[in-house]
Amino acid sequence: MPNSETQQTDTLIVGAGQAGLALSYWLSRAGVEHVLLDRRPELGGAWQDRWDGFYLNTPNFSIDLPGMPYDGPEPEGFMPRDEVVTLFRHYAQAIGAPVRSGADVTRISPANGGFGVETSEGTWRARKVVLATGAYQVPKVPPLAAAIPGRIFQLHSHEYRNPGQLPDGEVLIVGTAQSGGQIAEELHSAGRQVHLAVSSCPEAPRRYRGHDILHWILNLGIHGPEYGLNAFRTEQLPSPAARFACNPLLSGTDGGHAIHLRDLGRQGMRLHGHLDGVDDGELVFTDDFPERLVSVEAGFGQRLQPLFDAYISAAGISAPPAEPARVDDWLPASSPRLNLASENITTVLWATGYKLDLGIVDIPVLDEWDYPRHSRGVTEYPGLFAVGLPWLSGHYSSILGGVGLDAEYLAGKIGEPPY
After folding, report:
1. Residues whose CB falls within 8 Å of the CB of residue 360, separated by 6 or more in sequence, listed in order
2. Structure confidence by residue, pLDDT tens digits, 34-80
3. Annotation: CATH topology of 139-354
4. Residue 200: Cβ within 10 Å count
5. What is the C-alpha separation between 260 and 250, in angstroms, rounded?
6. Where are the alpha helices (H) located in 6-132, listed in sequence order?
7. Cα 346 from Cα 89, distance rounded (Å)
8. 135 near 390, Cβ under 8 Å?
9. pTM over 0.90
10. Across-strand partners of 171?
């Protein structure tokens, strides 16, 4: 039963995933009274929504929760889903996070110089509110999904659990970011014929110049500005839409590895261009497949590699020389049209990412992408903050290796005297 009495606290954190818990750690150290509300009945955040065989794409060494950095025996390993969930439950207990589970927030609005927060468990009043709802909120499925015949089983990667969940027949995966690549490999290993609609997400090596690629991403993002290298800072993004660009095509399974689309084709997966439409039972793909492959393969060398090399040089780091760029001109057969019935495609799996949904915020502070207008998490509306969103202050803002930095900064702002 919902609590009929209005409850109060100084600071209310909406969401008890990695960002909310990291902020709770710093607020506790600053002596700020606070409560975390989480809609799930148990802690573990959005990691609980991943499929059975999911592994983190980021190595264990990058798990750097405030007060509890990774200190296990496999810093270069990759953690499976259930271990990640257990990690967060242990972390919440270790830091004494004041979490109220099963409290689904439905509205946040101004009230008496602070905020009124309506939830499935009653109403709260708080002087300050922090949005820590994460980046994986609403599965994004393109409108053309409605044109696919009803006999085809459709699901988003958010709903995928294992190969046995899908009906017999061939599977089309739309999207080749990290989830699409990992699920494609899992289905192929289970003996399923997989088709891939290739997106624009770049390929990248799992390791570069002696370290996992995440080592360089984190160090460049955190320490790059010390050497005048600010490419991984939010202010350097070419446009606000770039906050939602896909990450390099990498996997944490089998000890971690890079995924190369041409290799998937050699293994027997069928590759296609971007899914462009549906026409009388046929899928229509763009006819730019060869050029798309070249663009995907060139992404690392054009953007990330020069930045890493510049950082290594500027910081005076002794690192092995870069390996020669991979050269591969093998081209699988590809058709711009695919008949669902004749190819026995019975499943379309949308690995098309997520979109933000902050419709609970009844305050005019969101932009056209539903992203709060802010300066490093301090929104335009006094007393309202955000943490854990993509590119909040830099590339690292929504990943385990960097979310604590933004949380520490925000805790200082939240602990300042009242407005």
Report:
1. 14, 105, 106, 107, 108
2. 999 999 999 998 899 999 999 999 999 999 999 999 999 999 999 99
3. FAD/NAD(P)-binding domain (3.50.50)
4. 14
5. 9
6. 18-30, 81-95
7. 38
8. yes
9. yes
10. 194, 347
What are the φ/ψ torsions at residue 355 (nearest 5 degrees)?
A: -130, 155
Give CA 27 to chain center in angstroms. Answer: 25
Rg over CA atoms, the chain: 22
DSSP 281: T
Indicate the class that CATH gives domain 3-137+356-414: alpha beta
**Which amino acid is residue 69, in one-letter code?**
P
CA distance 390 to 328: 33
Q: What are phi and psi of 33, to 5 degrees?
A: -65, 135
Domains 3-137+356-414 and 139-354 fall in the same CATH topology: yes
- pLDDT tens, 221-275? 999 999 999 999 999 888 888 888 888 999 999 999 999 999 999 999 999 999 9
Q: How far is it, in rounded angstroms, from Cα 341 to Cα 358?
A: 40
State how far the Cα of 136 lies from the Cα of 233, in Å rounded to an integer: 21
φ, ψ for residue 143, nearest 5 deg: -60, -30
